[in-house]
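Rotation project, supervised by the postdoc (A.L.). Task for the rotation student: set up a whole-complex structure prediction and record inputs and outputs verbatim in this book. Inputs entered:
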Amino acid sequence: MKLLITGGAGFIGSNFIRYILNKYPDYKIVNLDLLTYAGNLENLRDVENNPNYKFIKGDIADKNLANDLAKDADIIVNFAAESHVDRSILDSAAFIHTNILGTHNLLEAARNNGLKRFHHISTDEVYGHLGPNDPAFNEKTPYAPRSPYSASKAAADHLVMAYFHTYNLPVTISNCSNNYGPYQFPEKLHGLFITNLLEGKKVPVYGDGRQVRDWLFVSDHCEAIDLIIHKGKIGETYCVGGNCEKPNLEITQKILELLGKGEEMIEYVKDRPGHDRRYAMNFAKIKSELGWEPRTNFDEGMRKTVEWYKNNEDWWKTIKSGEYLKYYEKQYKER
Ligand code: NAD
Ligand code: DAU
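Outputs recorded:
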C-alpha cells in the first residue's frame, strides 16, 4: 500500500507516520509537507532513513506537485492544515489557502488519478460549541463553525463530501476532538503550559478557565485513522473523541501537580475572542462499526506527555527561541 500523507511533519501527522511504519513494514509513505512554522523534520528524525519513507517539501496547493505525487499513491491522508485557532484570529489568509484551496487541490489530484481513498482529517470545531447540558456532537450535528480556523475546516469538509456525491470520489472524513501527546507544538495548551513551567514561567489561562475540551491521546487518534482508512465506509464521516471532558483549569492543575508547581504559576489573561465554551464527541459510530475506542486514560496520557517534554528539552527550546516568539508577542500585543 502506498500512502501520500500530507502535513506529516506536524504533531499528529508525525505520530501517524511513525505508527504506520511500525505496524505495516511493507507500506510505502510519502510525506508532503511545506514545513511552515509548525512543520519540523526533528519530529521524524528516527524514521528518516527508513527505506519505506520519503519526505517531499511542498505545498498541498501546488497543482503539478500534488498531481505528480498522487500518480504513485493508493491513498491520500490529508493532515496538512493551519491548525491554531489563535493564529486564525490574528490572520486567517494562510488558513484559507491551505485548509480550503489546498484540500481542493488534493481532491482534484485524487480524482484525476483514480485513487482508492481520500481520507480527510477534520475537527470537532466544525460543529460549533455546546452548552453545559447539551448532548455531545455526533455525525449528524449540523455544521456551525465560529472561528476562522473552524470555518476553513468546515469548508474543506464540505468540498470533500461534494467530491464524493458529485464525482464518486472514495472519501472518508474523521472529525476528532483535542489531541495531546508528544511532538505537539508549544503554542497549544499542553505544550505551552508544560514548557512554560519547565522554564519557570507562568501559564496564561484564558478567561475563567472553565472551557471544556474532550482530550484524546494522540496514539489513540492514530489507531482510529488506521481503522478508518482500511475499513471505514466510503462516503462516511466518523466522530472520534477521547471520552475525557475536562475544563482547562483541571488540565492546568494536573500539569502543575505533575511538575510539582503551585497555583501561583497561573496567570488569568484576557479571553480568546469568540472562545468556544465546550466540545464533546460522541464516538458511538466508530465504536460500533469499527470497534475503536480510546484506550489511554487521562492520568496515563498526562504523565506520558509531561515526561516527553521533560525528556525533549532541545526540541522545544529550539522552537521557542525562533519564529514562535514573534507570534507570541504579536498575539498579546493585539489583544
Ligand atoms: P500541526 O499544526 O502540528 O501540523 C500541520 C502540518 O501541516 C505542519 O507540518 C505544516 O508544515 C503542514 N502544512 C501547513 N500548511 C501546509 C501546506 N500548504 N502544504 C503542506 N503542508 C502544510 O497540526 P496538527 O495538530 O498535527 O493537526 C493535523 C490535522 O488534524 C489538521 O488538519 C487539524 O485541523 C486536525 N486536527 C487537529 C487536532 C489537534 O488537537 N491538534 C484536533 C482535531 C483535528
Ligand atoms: O477541538 C479540536 C481542535 O483542538 C483542533 O481542531 C485544533 O487544531 C487544535 O488546535 C485544538 O484547538 P483548541 O483551540 O481547542 O486548542 P488549544 O490548545 O489552542 O486550546 C485549548 C483550550 O485551552 C482552549 O479552550 C483555549 C485554552 N487556552 C489555550 C492556550 C494556548 C488557554 O487557556 N491558554 C492558552 O495559552
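Student's summary: The mean pLDDT is 97.
Supervisor addendum: The first helix runs from residue 11 to 23.
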